[in-house]
Write a structure and sequence with these properties.
Blueprint lengths: L1 E5 L5 E5 L7 H7 L6 E6 H14 L5 E6 L8 H13 L7 E6 L1 H13 L5 E6 L2 H7 L4 E6 L2 E8 L4 E4 L9 H18 L1 H8 L5 H18 L14 H10 L6 H18 L7 H11 L10 H8 L9 E9 L2 E8 H5 L2
Parallel strand pairs: 2-9, 3-4, 3-5, 5-6, 6-9
Antiparallel strand pairs: 1-2, 7-8, 10-11
Helix pairs in contact: 3-4, 5-6, 5-8, 6-7, 6-8, 6-10, 9-10, 9-12, 10-11
The structure holds glycine.
The site of glycine has 6 residues, from loops.
Length: 341
């Protein structure tokens, strides 16, 4: 088992290891939470693990809330439904929400936790690789609006994150590839050794997840509210979000980030903003994991869609570019300059 401390305003642990879910009841007790628990999950994960988790928390007063699966349900309507259920079940501010699922469940349940009674505690139990290495850690919660992804939300840190690799046994291969987009991102922006480990055969998953979480925890500790350093975690995301939107969300988040990293890196190399060779290395690695190549996506066609990205301040945009493999920087420019580049 590995335990990583996230030094946010209110610090918390991320525990990573096979079978760690079985320690959830005692971990909740250690947090001093002895009241009601609302388990929020979606239909897919609920079908696989809903009964098991409810039984595991059997000694406690549990209410179970299941939302629909899919990006189209990452919405204010879903948050409103969850809030109504929490109120019907008379949860109080000292009670707890457990978010059991992938990134969408974590973001939506976390946002409901941030809003309900102006904020109740929650625990993240991520069940996908993507959620384990990225979205469950760092306190970004929220939903999509028609204008774009994650345009409404709140920073609300969990009290604990439990990453149990056993959940990955039922993870479809396509979902695994999705998580690899974020894993490769961490290597690109902050850890060349991680990229080398990913390029070699084998490699323990627990160690890889733990390294990604360590890197994320480091960025969150430096810049919890995403005003500078943390933005480097968005490598591949500005174009990635545009690709998700352009595809009507047929290209899932992690795979879109994979394409976004390839496209932005090639674009930056052509302009002398990143040394040559980085894009080839990213392409080799994303190909190794069978990820989408996205040959039809070009930066030039995506800036306009990216202009609606929430990270824009006026017409300014901060792109995350690579100094070299394993090191990144923020490149501040404008949408106008990009459209004319
Ligand atoms: N997923 C990027 C961040 O948490 O800042």
């Amino acid at each position: 088992m590995k335990k990583i401390r996230v030094n946010a305003g209110r610090p918390y642990d991320v525990v990573i290891g096979k079978g760690e879910i079985n320690n959830l009841p005692s971990a909740i007790n250690k947090l001093g939470k002895s009241g009601k628990i609302a388990v929020v999950t979606d239909r897919n994960v609920g079908g696989l693990y809903g009964e098991k988790i409810t039984a595991l928390l059997g000694g406690k007063d549990v209410c179970y809330v299941e939302i629909e699966s899919g990006e189209e349900h990452k919405s204010m309507n879903t948050v409103a439904d969850i809030l109504e259920k929490l109120a019907e079940n008379k949860l109080t501010r000292s009670d707890l929400i457990v978010a059991l699922g992938g990134g969408i469940v974590g973001d939506v349940a976390g946002f409901a936790a941030a809003c309900y009674l102006r904020g109740v505690d929650f625990v993240q139990v991520p069940t996908t690789l993507l959620a384990m290495v990225d979205s469950s850690v760092g306190g970004k919660t929220g939903v999509n609006l028609s204008a774009g992804k994650n345009l409404a939300g709140a920073f609300h840190q969990p009290r604990l994150v439990v990453c149990d690799e056993d959940f990955l046994a039922t993870l479809p291969q396509e979902e695994f590839k999705n998580g690899m987009g974020e894993v490769i991102k961490y290597g690109c922006i902050a850890d060349k050794d991680l990229l080398e480990k990913l390029s070699s055969p084998g490699g323990g998953l627990e160690e890889i997840i733990a390294r990604c979480v360590e890197i994320k925890a480091d960025f969150v500790a430096k810049d919890e509210f995403d005003n500078g350093e943390r933005q480097k975690l968005n490598f591949g995301h500005t174009l990635g979000h545009a690709i998700e939107k352009a595809s009507g969300f047929a290209v899932p988040h992690g795979q879109a980030v994979g394409i976004g990293m390839r496209v932005i890196c090639r674009w930056a190399e052509e302009r002398g903003l990143t040394p040559k060779g980085c894009a080839d290395a990213i392409e080799a690695l994303t190909d190794k994991f069978g990820m989408l190549k996205g040959e039809n996506y070009r930066a030039e066609d995506l800036w306009n869609i990216a202009a609606n990205d929430k990270k824009l301040k006026g017409k300014n945009i901060s792109l995350v570019l690579l100094k070299e493999l394993g090191s990144s920087y923020l490149y501040k420019t404008t949408i106008d300059a990009l459209e004319n580049s």
